[in-house]
Amino acid sequence: MLPGDGSGKDVTAEAVKVLEAAAGRWSLPLELVHLDWDADRYLKTGETVPPGAFDDFRDNYSAILIGAFGDPRVKDNKHAADILLGTRFKLDLYINLRPVKLYDARLCPLKGRTEKDVDFVVFRENTEGAYINAGGNLKQGWADEVAIQEEIHTRKGVERIIRAAFEYAVTHGRREVMMSDKSNVMQYGHGLWRRVFAEVAKEHPQIQTRTMFVDALCMEMVLRPEGLDVIVTNNMFGDIITDIGAALQGGLGVAASANLNPGQTSMFEPVHGSAPALAGTGKANPVGAVLSAAMMLDYLGHQEAAQAVEAAVARSLREGQTTPDLGGSLTTSQVGGLLAKAVG
Ligand code: IPM
Ligand code: MN
Q1: What are the structural domains of the chain?
Q2: What is the C-alpha to C-alpha distance for residues 70 and 221, in angstroms, rounded to an integer?
Q3: Can you tell me which atom of ligand 1 is nearest the CA of 96?
Q4: What are the φ and ψ backbone dihedral angles of 209, each rounded to 5 degrees?
Q5: The whole model's pTM is what?
Q6: Would you say the CB of residue 125 lies under 6 angstroms from ligand 1?
């Protein structure tokens, strides 16, 4: 458990209640270890990640549940980058799986859409692309300053995320995999994506395929979300389109994610940030964290428990038993309590 900062602490406390209820009901061998890697600790000690911590995670833990990182006192977000991106990179969690599922029609900002219209998943590449922090500034602050920001795409990295998307489509009865890029402009990197996608698609004749430039996909997501099924894309585009996805399902408060390297220690986190203004007010929505915990249960092989948690969330959303961001009047802790009771 890495609750992190601000409302990250509030929402993970509720996810813990739900996990403990599930562990009780299904006799799951749940052992939670809480780590206080937050902005306070960083500001006090200057340390973001203790030495050897990622090796320890890899060797001694099944999964990591993160709340959110970000604190107004840490302007450059150093601890967030080291911890969050560090976990993704150092554990080689190459799949960022972000389901976009509408649990209650009222939560969708689009006119006339119902639950069946918004139900797709995004496979976001999670270890390379624009996130590798390669580049530099020349003559910083001068009138002729130069900034270089590179993105890297490797055949291995591209192929494994595309394969993961196809395998998911096969095992989850999905119809289509769409690959989204901007290869009309970024010919080298995204050209590689196109070629690898075509190769892997050939091995899965039972799955339909489509490619779409990411700008067109942004439009498609709000005009015809019902046509979307499994989307695979690079790190940066996956980041951007999953915020649109979160909006389609009711906002960042409900969006969940899994950062996976199948068979290895993987990490689960709500898509939202630390929302410092909401911290401690009882207004933060714990559903994104609870659904991320459900994805963790599923990953760890506890499908029945995972489905029960998801069903409890779906019911609470349909009944309007929610925090104020979704129009309800319950507090963070009341929502967590209610979900724990429904599961346990
Ligand atoms: C996300 C976030 C992160 C990202 C930030 C906090 C670095 O926006 O998980 O979507 O860009 O990946
Ligand atoms: Mn994001």
Answers
A1: 1-104+268-344 (3.40.718.10), 109-249 (3.40.718.10)
A2: 28
A3: 9
A4: -135, 155
A5: 0.97
A6: no
